[in-house]
Amino acid sequence: MLPILSMLFSILYEQTVVPGALQLSAMATQMLVISPALSAISAMVIPGTSLAIAYLGERTRKISKEAHLSVANLSAYLNEVLPAILFVKANNAELSENVRFQRLANADLLAHLKKKKMKALTPQIIQIIYFGGLFTLCVGSLVVSRGSFDSRSIVSFMTSLVFLVEPIQDVGKAFNEWKQGEPAIERLFDLSNLKSKVIEKQDAIELETVKGDVKFYDVSFRYGDERPLVLNKLNLHIQAGETVALIGPSGGGKTTLAKLLLRLYDPLSGGILLDNKNIQNVHLESLRRHVGLVSQDVTIFSGTVAENIGYKDLTTKIDMEKVQMAARDANADEFIRMLPKGYETDVGPRGSSLSGGQKQRLAIARAIYQDASILILDEATSALDSKSELLVRQALEKLTKNHTVLVIAHRLETVLMANRILLLANGELQELSRSSLLNERVANMASNEIVI
Ligand SMILES: Nc1ncnc2c1ncn2[C@@H]1O[C@H](COP(=O)(O)OP(=O)(O)OP(=O)(O)O)[C@@H](O)[C@H]1O
């Protein structure tokens, strides 16, 4: 942001405003010396032209804003639809998506044409206004002076006037350029003003090693003042090395609990302790290094397999030995070696060249590489074929051996991997025994998604 602002400052201020202002004051002084009366008349033209420039500036700003919005709408649409192209085809929706695309593309084309027209016309309109003003002034000056001026004074006055107009014109152009760029700057500021929902303390502590003991005490949370409580005085103690399965109805608050542990939000009341330290007193970076997340919407970036697994060290140096170990533990090594370039294979945008199960195993390998003591596994609801599912489950089982695991589970097999099973419904937790889970009544209450 700062380089952009300093560049704008340099263009507008140092290259236009400062020399312009110097020239303007020199010419105005010269004119005042030659004839104060004529200078006063000339000065009257200036507010008129300034108003015209201001009006044109405002129009340019509006048109530029429309152009920015139209391109933003188009790119948002493409970002949404291109990754879901399989869904579009499966629903025979190519034609309707084509129409939607055409509509947005046309709107973008029109908005940009309008902007180009305005950009081309503005300097001409300003020129016409200036020369109109200048002509009026010349005629006015001759009429007012009625021969009291000698020809040298008139020439000198007019020359000063021409040189006076030039910097005003420059400032007008700079003003229009500023107005044209204003919507883009507004959007940049909007983005940079997106505030984090949590605040890191100045004296926050660094967690070097973590055993993995997690405690939620009296935690209440809602997403906004007007919204209902998602968690209501919830208490939960997960001992280091334990695996806890969290089940519950959709919208019951399971993901919210995980978000609070990652400190994406702070609880309304109560607190969360990690190895008996309140996470609000811990460096965010260090907290999130020790708490790994394998979420249900697996995120795979375009890049190589190795880069996706060693994501934590992407900007430093990826440890290839560690990548391969993580892939072996995640049951991913075998399929990776069969890819055209093994670990160096490009997986395509959003991992488009991989199957659902392969993506999930890559995400698990990434979590293993991260070396977090605590893992949150948000099990994918989408079904995999039985072989893939078995490979993913085996990988998850390996993970539970040496980590504290909170698994948001949707399948009975995953639930049964856990040491304890907790049902989260209506903001409250209830511990379930394995036998009660197999009881149909509780199973229905817990979640329709659990296949029992
Ligand atoms: N960012 C948000 N802003 C406002 N409300 C939210 C937000 N995220 C979740 N909610 C609401 O909070 C409640 C709990 O959502 P949460 O995602 O924790 O449920 P869940 O148990 O994980 O559901 P699922 O099993 O369907 O993933 C829901 O009513 C949801 O609509």
UniProtKB/TrEMBL annotation:
Residues 17-180 form the ABC transmembrane type-1 domain. It is found in: Membrane. CDD domains: ABC_6TM_exporters. SUPFAM superfamilies: ABC transporter transmembrane region, P-loop containing nucleoside triphosphate hydrolases. It holds the Pfam family ABC_tran. The chain crosses the membrane at residues 36-56, 125-144. GO terms for molecular function: ABC-type transporter activity; ATP binding; ATP hydrolysis activity. Residues 214-451 form the ABC transporter domain. Its main location: membrane. It is a multi-pass membrane protein. Keywords: ATP-binding, Membrane, Nucleotide-binding, Transmembrane, Transmembrane helix, Transport. One of its GO terms (cellular component) is membrane. InterPro entries: AAA+_ATPase, ABC1_TM_dom, ABC1_TM_sf, ABC_transporter-like_ATP-bd, ABC_transporter-like_CS, P-loop_NTPase, Type_1_exporter. This is Uncharacterized protein.
